[in-house]
Design brief:
With about 180 residues, the chain is α+β, with helices and mostly antiparallel strands. The chain has three helices and six strands; from the N terminus they run αααββββββ. The chain has helices at about 5-85, 85-105, 110-125, and strands at about 130, 145-150, 160-165, 170, 175, 180-185. The protein has a three-stranded antiparallel β-sheet with strand order 1-4-5. Strands 2-6-3 form a three-stranded mixed β-sheet, with no helix packed on it. α2 runs antiparallel to α3 (about 110-125). It is rod-shaped.
Length: about 180
């Protein structure tokens, strides 16, 4: 083979390699891009699933919190109902107690009336009823209802309860009826 033919053959071979090489390079680039796209797609899926998990977890926590609040509220309502369920009945009985006390004062403490009164008060006290002892105390608008005011006999009596017109009562340490009182000014 002559040199010229040899050079031409080498040139042709080089052209073929140049033609094959860019095609191979392009194929490799396409494969790399496809692999990167697949990885990006998987990363997006992982991120999307993570976001869904966070949203569901947040929803679960909120639902759980709402349930706990509901449970606590209903338990508190049940406890209040048990403690104060007899409130209306106790309010209805208070005028009867007032009448008993008036009867005791009018009859010079007859034993029969006194016995019935004491039994009734003992039962009511067991159920949470407690009379207020307010005579001589400072006037408190949260516990007392001032019916009238009178001039104070001494300076230290000013603003105190000097007489009780109608007793006040607590039911389980909550005011059931305010004491109607006379206040010194």
């Amino acid at each position: 083979m002559s040199k010229k033919e040899h050079n031409t053959a080498e040139a042709e071979e080089k052209q073929e390699q140049d033609v094959e090489h860019p095609v191979e390079q392009a194929e490799e680039q396409v494969e790399e891009q496809a692999a990167e796209a697949a990885e990006a797609t998987e990363a997006d899926k992982v991120q999307e699933l993570g976001e869904k998990l966070a949203a569901l977890n947040d929803k679960y926590l909120r639902l759980y919190s709402e349930y706990e609040n509901y449970r606590k509220r209903t338990n508190q309502e049940k406890a209040d109902l048990l403690l104060n369920g007899s409130r209306e009945m106790m309010k209805a009985v208070l005028p009867v107690i007032d009448d008993f006390e008036r009867a005791l004062a009018a009859t010079d403490n007859e034993e029969g009336v006194k016995l019935i009164y004491n039994k009734m008060m003992k039962i009511l006290e067991q159920k949470g009823l407690k009379a207020m002892d307010v005579k001589g105390e400072k006037f408190d608008e949260n516990l007392h209802e001032a019916i009238t005011r009178i001039p104070a006999a001494a300076e230290e009596q000013k603003g105190t309860v000097v007489d009780v017109v109608e007793k006040g009562y607590y039911l389980n340490d909550k005011v059931l009826r305010y004491a109607k009182v006379v206040v010194a000014f």
